[in-house]
Amino acid sequence: PLGLRLSTIEGRVVRIADIMGYLNHDLDDAIRSGVITENKIPEPCSKILGHTHAQRAKVMIQDLIFSSKIQKGELHLNMSGKVHSAMTTLREFLYESVYRSPQVHGEFLKSKKILSELYTHFLTNQEMLKDELEAINLTGSKQGNQPVERTVCDLIASITDRYALGLYEKIFFPSPMV
User: Quick check: 55 pLDDT over 50?
Assistant: First the structure.
């Protein structure tokens, strides 16, 4: 069992997909950014899950499909012991070698500063908040019925890293004099 306590099957599927996605993407990002090298990945992970993004995704998804069962009319999501173990090993490796690395911690602090400053800015500049919500098509009837703090959180949660950096630059960096 995957130890998921979510009440709906949809929630459990999304949670598992999220775990698979972050393991795979975080590993790729760590290699691409030079935080780790491919030869540092624990051998059981590469051997069982594969050496590429596509191989890892395929193995994890297929294993989930083939290991899950319907019992008494209810779907029970599961993974084989070897794939689950390889994923757990990969997660532990990522925590020790990537998430806790000084390089990643430094980037985390920068990201935290950017998001905190964007949050504070949009709380006090609601016209710009409205413009950004429209720009990313996040204007809905719900937005007007919730506190502005929640709306700003929804905006920040809906943008990409690159978009956040662009906003930060637009708002906080001086414009060149012409």
Answer: yes
Share of the chain above pLDDT 90, in %: 72
Residue 75: Cβ within 10 Å count: 12
**Dihedral of CA 78/80/85/86: which sign?**
negative
Per-residue pLDDT, 171: 94
Burial status of residue 19 (CB atoms within 10 A of its CB: 0-12, 13-18, 19 or more): middle
pLDDT reading at 140 higher than 80: no
Name every residue whose Cβ is closer than 8 Å to that of residue 18 and which is 6 or more positions away in sequence: none
DSSP letter at 96 equals I
> Quick one: 12 exposed, middle or buried, by C-beta within 10 A (0-12, 13-18, 19+)?
middle
